[in-house]
Amino acid sequence: MQKFVIVALNSLLAAGLYATMSYGLAVIYGVMRIINLAHAGLMMLAAYATWALNDRFGLDPFLSMIIVAPAFFVLGMALYATLIRWLPRSAAGPSMQSLLLLFGVWLVLQNLAYAIWGGDTQSILTPYTMESVPFLGGRLGVPQILVFVVSILSLVGLNLVLRRTYLGKAIRAVTQNRDAAMLSGVNAGQIAAVAFGIGTAFAAMAGSMLSTLYAFTPDFGRSFLLKAFCIIVLGGMESFTGVALGALVLAFIENFASAYTSIPVSYQDAISFTLLVVVLVAAPGGLPGLWRMLDRRVVAR
Amino acid sequence: MKALEVDGIDVFYRDVQAVWDVSFDVEPGEIVTLVGANGAGKTTALRTIAGLLKPRRGTIRFQGEDVTGMPPFKLVERGLVMVPEARQLWPQMTVRENLELGAYGKEARKQRNETLGVVLQMFPILEKRSHQNAGTLSGGEQQMCAIGRGLMAGPKLLMLDEPSLGLAPMLVRQVFAALKEINARGVTVLLVEQNVNQALALANRGFVLETGHLTLSGQTRALRSDPRVKEKFLGEAAL
Ligand SMILES: Nc1ncnc2c1ncn2[C@@H]1O[C@H](COP(=O)(O)OP(=O)(O)O)[C@@H](O)[C@H]1O
Ligand SMILES: [Mg+2]
């Protein structure tokens, strides 16, 4: 029972980070109907930026997010203005051009990191990296707790912006019906630039936080991109609660699988990949789709 | 000065032409209707005027200014506002949010609360539904919300794409009465309809679109008694 509670708590802590990392993808997908394959590269770059700020100036990785996130917001807007905006629009879903372009951006970022920092494994060591607090007879890591708190704060912040500000409402409007938004006077190009900036800033926050938990190289981020795919497919791509739910489901499955089965931790990627395939085959609408289907069945009865 | 002048526009979807050399105009203060069967190109023409599509040839002038190819947000700022076909509300936003976001432009935002008062007075049901998600509204309520959202932008010319689509006769009368009231408040109206009989009864002038070509035009009184109109549209409507 006690083990169960600790595993559940660790799942919850992981879910916060997973959600932060997935919202970046979801916001961009919602507004532009493209999948940001460069997401992993941006997380990696943010990890290095956080590391550099820590190495040079002794800046705490969590504090460095105050610099890293806005800087990546600007980087995202710049990427949009120089590259993304030229992509042909497709209402149906991500075009081949968008996938190739963003995959290319990822490769460029990776090689840039190799050129600047080399291929050695880096990690950030802070006074609390190894710390943990006792909880219900088990222990919870201090970095994990901090990551969870910051994740929740960033998600609450994003939600407030999306719900309370004109800009946020315009982002939701473009997501829900782009034509109607344009006909109401929303400059869709401007909103797309802002959304790409927000998505990039969230990739950066996830990257900064990941750098406090894991060692990294320029290849870093791939498995987390896979997890994020799994989460937004589970969550149904467009709803805020859906993505949170998807993050919870994946985190719980991963943690319980490694705690209660003999599946080694190194197989975690296999779990998210299997889940991704199962969801795509069995419930392409994700959890919201499944929910609607069950709902309809109940109503029909 | 004319409110709107459409001069010889050709509109394509890739290589397929949907609108051929269409010209018509709207005088300030008028209600003008563009009628035609399903697939005639009415929506295409309206979306082109609103800036969502670009004509391959021809010009569009709004209040004397050439606005051909201008993006929709700039046209909305100038007072050229379109209420799209099939409502197209934001389903996961409340009725209130839908309306408020209608006043997105700088000028409209300043007038937001007064305009909202006018809209809610015109459609009291929206006040009652104000905290419901727009996706949960009935068809008639959705149409009122869509028209209300269009009004929130502070239009000088309001273009509506088949507002009667899918509505019961009583609701159609209600929506058309609202259009009359909107017009009486000084807003010029361009109404696209398949409901030819009622559209012609409401409007001052009418244009008939057939497979992408304008075939008839004139005062609605004359059009209603025109044998070609009767044969094509009103005979069916009388059934
Ligand atoms: N998105 C589109 N892509 C290709 N063809 C279209 C598209 N929308 C409409 N069309 C075609 O253009 C013609 C006019 O359509 P439309 O403007 O919607 O007519 P209406 O509004 O009068 O019913 C039709 O033949 C239709 O099939
Ligand atoms: Mg139509």
In short:
The complex is a heterodimer of chains A (301) and B (239). Chain A is mainly alpha-helical and 301 residues long. Helices cover 75% and strands 3% of the residues of chain A.
What ranges of chain A have pLDDT less than 50 throughout 5 or more consecutive residues?
none
Label the overall shape of chain A.
globular
Instruction: Tally the structural domains of chain B.
Output: 2
| CATH architecture annotation of chain A | Orthogonal Bundle
Q: Which strand order do you get reading across the main beta sheet of chain B?
A: 6-7-8-3-9-10
Distance between the termini of chain A: 38 Å
Structural class of chain A: mainly alpha
Net shape of chain B: globular
Overall residue-averaged pLDDT value of chain B: 93
CATH superfamily (homologous) name of the largest domain in chain B? P-loop containing nucleotide triphosphate hydrolases
Q: Please trace the helix and strand order of chain A, writing H or E for each element.
A: HHHHEEHHHHHHHH
Decide which structural class fits the backbone of chain B. alpha/beta
Order of helices and strands of chain B: EEEHEEHEHHHHHEHEHEEHH
Please count the helical segments of chain B.
Answer: 11
DSSP strand tally of chain B: 10
- Main pleated-sheet profile of chain B: 6 strands, mixed
Strand content of chain B: 25-35%
Mean pLDDT score of chain A: 91
The CATH level-2 architecture of the largest domain in chain B is identified as 3-Layer(aba) Sandwich
CATH topology (fold) name of chain A: ABC transporter involved in vitamin B12 uptake, BtuC
Q: Work out the count of structural domains of chain A.
A: 1
